[in-house]
Amino acid sequence: MSEPRLIDPFARAITYLRVSVTDRCDFRCVYCMAENMEFLPKAELLTLEELDRLCTAFVALGVEKLRITGGEPLVRKGIMTFFRAMSRHLATGALKELTLTTNGSQLRRFAGELRDCGVRRVNVSLDTLDATKFRAVTRWGRFAQVMDGIDAAVEAGLKVKINAVALKGVNDDEIHDMVAWCGARGHDLTFIEVMPMGDIGGEDRLDQYYSLKELRRDLEARWTLTDTPERTGGPARYVRVGETGGRIGFITPLTHNFCESCNRVRLTCTGQLYMCLGQEDDADLRAPLRAHPGDDAPLVEAIRRAIERKPRGHDFDYSRRTVEGQVSRHMSHTGG
Ligand code: SAM
Ligand code: SF4
After folding, report:
1. Is residue 289 part of a domain?
2. pTM for the full predicted model
3. 277 in ligand 1 pocket by Cβ < 6 Å?
């Protein structure tokens, strides 16, 4: 590493960058987007070369894990060029992990190439095993295509983790089926609490909210869950399922404070760096990037100034039955 590492004001080393490579998506999940989303003009987006420069700067500053997300990362034109470019940092050992979060729709097409680029694990978002409900949740998604995509990932040798947003009245009656299905197939499973991000057009988040405390209690009626000490620097806690040997994660940004060990920052597809998912403060990295095409020093300086502003934690709170701490941007913009 050529530069001193990124350490924030609370002595947390920043080693994990999540990068949204597009705000576009082939689905319109009800908790994530309004059906008639307006997307950014293409000129606003970082080019693949700009994404490369930015990520490379972060890797030089000690980032060891890159997660590519969106929107749907695999619908960004030419995205494999970017994965291929990032694989050079795996080859040098500077980057320890290159991974992505995807809705799975394009995995049949890209799983093999992702594996060739050094990707070993993918997170696939799947909230239900019922094709009709899947259609209702994603609005535009096709269940069979996602199932086939997951099969393609497994065939290519990728480890698949399933991410499910816990939704009252949608998948609360399916949690046991999902644990059994993931256990039988060897997929880790993570439940995520729905977060108050972005205008989603008429949907009520408090109606959707199914606390993971309640979900865990419901699971324990059928499964033997044992806490494991694993932490990833993120908001997940893990348990082992006695009956399947599988692992379940719970991401509870709303009911637990996980911020003290936060090691991550998020880059939007337009080059804004968010030091915290739950705060509005951001730093524009696109301006120094574009103003100095041949010189990364101003960019590195902007990254360092931004990390100095990383807050202690977030302010999400549903406890007063109003959506406190809501942030106006969409998850698809910042990257989930
Ligand atoms: N399109 C890809 C996908 O769906 O996996 C990557 C981007 S998506 C924004 C990343 C993750 O954020 C998904 O697992 C999705 O379920 C989750 N997500 C989106 N909106 C959310 C919200 N309001 N609350 C909690 N999770 C959300
Ligand atoms: Fe698209 Fe992912 Fe958002 Fe669903 S959660 S609309 S798949 S970006």
Report:
1. yes
2. 0.92
3. no
Distance 73 CA to ligand 2 centre (A): 10
Nearest to 266 by CA among 94, 54, 33, 52: 54
Number of domains in the chain: 1
Per-run averaged pLDDT (10 residues), the chain, 336 residues? 82 96 97 92 96 98 98 98 98 98 98 98 98 97 98 98 95 98 98 75 68 95 94 82 97 68 93 87 96 97 96 64 54 60
Q: Which domain holds residue 140?
A: 16-334
In a domain, 201, yes or no: yes
> How much distance in Å is there from the Cα of 58 to the middle of ligand 2?
26
- Give CA separation, 200 vs 55, 140, 239, 281, in Å: 30, 15, 32, 21
Q: Report how far ligand 2's centroid is from the alpha carbon of 28 (Å).
A: 6
